[in-house]
User: Which sequence fits this backbone?
């Protein structure tokens, strides 16, 4: 079995740490769209609860903000698609 350095040893000698694994390549568009689908579901539930008087308008506004941020995420993903898929930084 490999000898595992202690936490204190790693703090004092960070060069003894194993290298980070390579990042996974994912399609951010799928991740963003899944998040937007969840915000849409939450929005529908909140609108129903608002109509019944069990919830305030703040929850509906929060879901709307989540959708707007998702749209901004899609715009960002489209502009930076080539660089993040190639593994380069802007």
Assistant:
């Amino acid at each position: 079995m490999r000898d595992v350095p202690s936490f204190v040893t790693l703090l004092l000698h960070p060069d003894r740490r194993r290298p980070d694994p390579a990042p996974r390549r994912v399609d951010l568009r799928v991740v963003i769209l899944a998040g937007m689908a969840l915000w849409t579901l939450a929005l529908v539930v909140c609108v129903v609860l608002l109509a019944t008087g069990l919830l305030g308008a703040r929850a509906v506004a929060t879901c709307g903000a989540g959708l707007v941020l998702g749209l901004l995420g899609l715009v960002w993903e489209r502009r930076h698609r080539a660089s993040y898929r190639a593994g380069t930084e802007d």
Notes: Residues 48-90 form one domain. The radius of gyration is 21 Å. The helical segments are 7-12, 28-52, 57-86. DSSP finds three helices and no strands in the chain.
